[in-house]
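ok new one. same drill as before - structure tokens go in, u give me an amino acid for every spot. 259 of them this time. try not to just spam alanines like last time pls lmao
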């Protein structure tokens, strides 16, 4: 049975121009012609086209496809193995680019005006979940403190971020040390760490009264995405977010004026 160029184009989901190109390149020439001189493809031609399209889908160039199809000595498996390695390399590269893009988008949500390289250099393993950042913006955007915090974050230089993140990293080390040493969450050491964090927020972002600090700590305990902004997952321990919450609220009581 014979098929016209238009019919084959419809069967294969490719353009007539592509079929003409394959013919001109000597990759797929129709086996017959109609009395009027039109190209006609046989079942064997369609089988060859199916092979061509298979290899094209895998990204093989036309000259390599021609070698595979025309050379009886060509080992198609060797070609496929080589292409498999190449595709895996491309996938790994694209995955790295995807991770860079996702991290850049997440950090961008914080309003930090740094280049992507500077952001990675400054923030390291701290993660910024885009969904949480969006929800937090919607939740707190009406509050003056949130607006001021975002404005100050956007205004910080790379040096500012490096300084405040170094302070924060030191605070994290002492926090986890207190937790690992089983210091009580409502004890002096834990409350001092809570107060230090509250003052850190005030110094670098926005005035943070104890009630506001309490709401922030509640988020830490309720949402792992929020706590990941403070302690990277690799440094977290089970119960650490709740520990911080208790310390923050205990410190709020301690800071309250005596009746």
């Amino acid at each position: 049975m014979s098929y016209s160029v238009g019919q084959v184009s419809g069967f294969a989901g490719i353009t007539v121009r592509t079929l003409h190109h394959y013919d001109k390149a000597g990759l797929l020439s129709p086996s017959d012609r109609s009395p009027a001189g039109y190209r006609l493809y046989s079942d064997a031609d369609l089988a060859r086209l199916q092979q061509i399209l298979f290899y094209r889908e895998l990204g093989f160039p036309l000259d390599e496809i021609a070698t595979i199809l025309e050379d009886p000595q060509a080992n198609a498996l060797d070609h496929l193995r080589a292409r498999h390695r190449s595709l895996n390399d491309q996938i790994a590269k694209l995955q790295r680019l995807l991770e860079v893009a996702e991290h850049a988008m997440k950090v961008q949500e914080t309003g930090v005006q740094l280049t992507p390289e500077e952001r990675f250099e400054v923030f390291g393993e701290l993660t910024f979940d885009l969904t949480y950042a969006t929800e937090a913006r919607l939740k707190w955007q009406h509050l003056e403190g949130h607006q001021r915090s975002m404005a100050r974050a956007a205004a910080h230089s790379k040096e500012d971020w490096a300084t405040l993140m170094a302070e924060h990293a030191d605070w994290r080390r002492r926090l986890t040390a207190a937790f690992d040493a089983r210091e009580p969450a409502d004890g002096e050491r834990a409350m001092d760490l809570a107060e230090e964090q509250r003052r850190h927020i005030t110094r670098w972002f926005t005035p943070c009264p104890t009630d506001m600090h309490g709401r922030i700590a509640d988020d830490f305990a309720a949402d792992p995405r929020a706590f990941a902004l403070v302690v990277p997952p690799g440094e977290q321990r089970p119960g650490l977010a709740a520990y911080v919450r208790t310390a923050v609220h205990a410190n709020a009581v301690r800071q309250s004026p005596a009746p």
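Strands lie at 3-4, 32-33, 39-41. and btw The CA atoms of residues 25 and 62 lie 9 Å apart.
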